TrEMBL record:
HAMAP family in the record: WhiB
PTMs per UniProt: The Fe-S cluster can be nitrosylated by nitric oxide (NO).
Subcellular location: Cytoplasm
Function: Acts as a transcriptional regulator. Probably redox-responsive. The apo- but not holo-form probably binds DNA.
Domain of life assignment: Bacteria
Sections of the chain in a coiled coil: none
Cofactor binding summary note: Binds 1 [4Fe-4S] cluster per subunit. Following nitrosylation of the [4Fe-4S] cluster binds 1 [4Fe-8(NO)] cluster per subunit.
InterPro entries tied to this protein: 4FE4S_WBL, Whib
Recorded name of the encoding gene: whiD
Residues in 4Fe-4S Wbl-type domain copies: 22-86
Name assigned to this protein: Transcriptional regulator WhiB
Lineage: Bacteria, Bacillati, Actinomycetota, Actinomycetes, Kitasatosporales
Species of provenance: Streptomyces cirratus
Alphabetical list of Pfam families matching this protein: Whib
Length: 100
């Protein structure tokens, strides 16, 4: 579950980017894996999601949202949860990671 304390608020301008997202009408199955999905099935699904993201006009805003809210699941802005976690780890100074 997302940490809602990091959400930007209910103001419309914080969420406008979602209306222009390439994934808007595609459903969530391509972007969120079912419980227990592993291996090639997961890689194929993730790659299909990333292909949608690659041509998305709001990819950067989507990724920034996922990083800011620490979105724990799914492909957001072209990155899987593991890729986002690694990116956040690279952004976090070692002394902060050690104290967590």
């Amino acid at each position: 579950m997302s940490d809602v304390s990091r959400l930007p608020g209910s103001a419309h301008h914080y969420w406008q980017w979602q209306a222009r997202a390439a994934c808007r009408d595609l459903g969530s199955n391509r972007f969120f894996h079912p419980a227990g999905e592993r291996g090639e099935d997961r890689e194929v699904r993730d790659e299909a999601a990333k292909q949608v993201c690659a041509g998305c006009p709001v990819r950067a805003a989507c990724l920034e949202h996922a990083l800011t809210t620490r979105e724990p699941f799914g492909v957001w802005g072209g990155l899987t949860e593991e890729e986002r976690r690694a990116l956040l780890d690279d952004r976090t100074p070692a002394r902060v990671r050690q104290s967590a």
